[in-house]
TrEMBL record:
<feature type="binding site" description="in other chain">
    <location>
        <position position="240"/>
    </location>
    <ligand>
        <name>IMP</name>
    </ligand>
</feature>
<feature type="binding site">
    <location>
        <begin position="414"/>
        <end position="416"/>
    </location>
    <ligand>
        <name>GTP</name>
    </ligand>
</feature>
<keyword id="KW-0547">Nucleotide-binding</keyword>
<feature type="active site" description="Proton donor">
    <location>
        <position position="41"/>
    </location>
</feature>
<feature type="binding site" description="in other chain">
    <location>
        <position position="131"/>
    </location>
    <ligand>
        <name>IMP</name>
    </ligand>
</feature>
<feature type="binding site" description="in other chain">
    <location>
        <position position="304"/>
    </location>
    <ligand>
        <name>IMP</name>
    </ligand>
</feature>
<keyword id="KW-0963">Cytoplasm</keyword>
<feature type="binding site">
    <location>
        <position position="13"/>
    </location>
    <ligand>
        <name>Mg(2+)</name>
    </ligand>
</feature>
<feature type="binding site" description="in other chain">
    <location>
        <begin position="38"/>
        <end position="41"/>
    </location>
    <ligand>
        <name>IMP</name>
    </ligand>
</feature>
<feature type="compositionally biased region" description="Basic and acidic residues">
    <location>
        <begin position="282"/>
        <end position="297"/>
    </location>
</feature>
<feature type="region of interest" description="Disordered">
    <location>
        <begin position="278"/>
        <end position="298"/>
    </location>
</feature>
<keyword id="KW-0460">Magnesium</keyword>
<dbReference type="InterPro" id="IPR042110">
    <property type="entry name" value="Adenylosuccinate_synth_dom2"/>
</dbReference>
<dbReference type="InterPro" id="IPR018220">
    <property type="entry name" value="Adenylosuccin_syn_GTP-bd"/>
</dbReference>
<feature type="active site" description="Proton acceptor">
    <location>
        <position position="13"/>
    </location>
</feature>
<feature type="binding site">
    <location>
        <begin position="12"/>
        <end position="18"/>
    </location>
    <ligand>
        <name>GTP</name>
    </ligand>
</feature>
<keyword id="KW-0479">Metal-binding</keyword>
Length: 431
């Protein structure tokens, strides 16, 4: 297979970074196609930890082309900081190894301010629990046709006109929220100052990727967030502001949907969520605490404690469908070591009826109670296992049951944060 899309199949933090890094050995190009620096992707290579937010996880391997596609919203000041921080870790970043689409919308300081002001103003129960990075407001400006985009940084007159267009909207909004109007000249000066650091990497990504594709190069698409945070198919409004599902990979860089050969869904062996919103299998007991402690479930971007719960097969079956997932990578199996009994949600009960999917209406979601199936756990350690033979029989039974329930095969299994602690079942890049 030439082109593989990696997407999160739950509420994010499934271990996409580790798997993208692992798979990137087989790829020529690694491309981000949505989201921004709300993402936090962790890679552990020979004990060294890399935390990436907007840079594709392929940057850590030398000799690959990393791409930030137009579907991303880019904070140029954050970009410069992240590049500096990974360079300090010895990663080589140059025009040859990083390309940013010219039509990528920028996240400006006004977006972060608005994001945080709205969250502060929201009453309990209506807060989204965003990362505060300005993601939502930046995407709003994109569809509102008032973004400043990467290409606009190259020309002073265009830049000023784009800023004025955005401020017409933002100053009115800020007035309503009791915020100071934006200092236009200072914002333009800030953008002019940062412009060369971004323009250095700017390129017509759609063209480069189409040429790569024709030349038979392999493209690995790196999703951020997870399908349950998708703007259309997630637990709206407690979602992020972009399409996260695999269909976005094509529009997020400018290739045709027929160029996608394999969709790999990243699935944690249990469930976590950071931020607000429904979570049917959430645990508030010792088991939940144990999952959080064993899985080190703290956000990579905000450091917030992640909510933890049992594996929800009904939800993952749903996300396998909406993303057209070919195979999954099951991660963090080792975190389940030592549980006497494991529970898997197989559907929901709503007003006396059984459902095999989570309904869309918020009031119905709130009334849904999970239907659980129990499985025996295992006392042996799976941490660091690199082959099926290293797994205890009950762990294999658990994986097989997950496959049956979600109606999708396991292609990869991950048993620790380390790059090489990965079991390959089916190579997504194999023809
Ligand atoms: P992402 O946002 O999907 O890339 O995931 P994050 O990096 O935010 O969170 C996943 C966390 O789990 C990171 O700290 C990874 O190092 C870690 N991780 C990934 N795979 C495994 C695994 O198989 N076992 C364990 N114990 N940790 C893992
Ligand atoms: P990765 O790529 C987990 C969540 C936030 C919040 C909601 C909206 O590391 O899996 P936003 O700032 O996007 O407007 O916040 O989405 N969220 C994530 N949760 N992993 C992520 O990324 C996330 N990116 C956003 O916590 O609930
Ligand atoms: Mg993350």
């Amino acid at each position: 297979m030439a082109n593989v899309v990696v997407v999160g199949a739950q509420w994010g933090d499934e271990g996409k970074g580790k798997i993208v890094d692992w798979l990137s050995e087989r790829a020529d190009v690694i491309a981000r196609f949505q989201g921004g620096h709300n993402a936090g992707h962790t890679l552990v290579i020979d004990g060294k930890v890399y935390k990436l937010h907007v840079l594709p996880s392929g940057v850590v391997r030398g000799g690959k082309l990393s791409v930030i596609g137009n579907g991303v919203v880019l904070d140029p000041w954050h970009l410069v900081k992240e590049i500096a921080s990974v360079r300090e870790q010895g990663v080589d970043i140059s025009k040859e190894t990083l390309m940013i689409a010219e039509n990528t919308p920028l996240i400006l300081p006004i977006h972060g301010e608005l994001d945080r002001a709205r969250e502060e103003a929201a009453s309990a129960g209506t807060k989204i629990g965003t990362t505060g990075r300005g993601i939502g407001p930046a995407y709003e400006d994109k569809v509102g046709r008032r973004s400043v985009r990467v290409a606009d940084l190259a020309d002073e007159a265009t830049l000023a006109a784009r800023v004025d267009r955005a401020l017409l909207h933002h100053n009115a909004l800020r007035k309503g929220l009791g915020m100071e109007p934006v200092d236009r000249d200072a914002l333009i000066a800030q953008l002019k100052e940062i412009a060369p650091s971004v323009l250095e990497f700017a390129a017509p990504v759609w063209k480069v990727l189409n040429e790569k594709r024709k030349a038979g190069k392999r493209i690995l698409f790196e999703g951020a967030q997870g399908a349950l945070l998708d703007i259309d198919f997630g637990t709206y409004p407690f979602v992020t502001s972009s399409n996260v599902i695999a269909g976005q990979a094509a529009t997020g860089v400018g290739i045709g949907p027929g160029s996608i050969d394999y969709v790999l869904g990243i699935v944690k062996a249990y469930t976590t969520r950071v931020g607000e919103g429904p979570f049917p299998t959430e645990l508030h007991d010792e088991d939940g605490q144990r999952l959080g402690e064993r899985g080190h479930e703290f956000g990579t971007t905000t450091g917030r404690k992640r909510r933890c719960g049992w594996f929800d097969a009904a939800l993952v079956r749903q996300t396998c469908a909406t993303s057209g997932i070919t195979g999954i990578s099951l991660t963090k199996l080792d975190v389940l070591d030592g549980f006497e009994t494991l529970k898997i949600c197989v559907g929901y009960e709503l007003d006396g009826k059984q459902l095999d999917y989570l309904p869309t209406a918020a009031d119905e979601q709130a009334r849904c109670t999970p239907i659980y199936e129990e499985m025996p756990g295992w006392s042996e350690s799976t941490e660091g296992a690199r082959s099926w033979n290293d797994l205890p029989a009950n762990a294999i039974k658990y994986v097989k049951r997950v496959e049956e329930l979600i109606e999708c095969p396991v292609a990869l299994l991950s048993t620790s944060p380390e790059r090489e602690d990965t079991i390959l079942v089916t190579d997504p890049f194999a023809d």
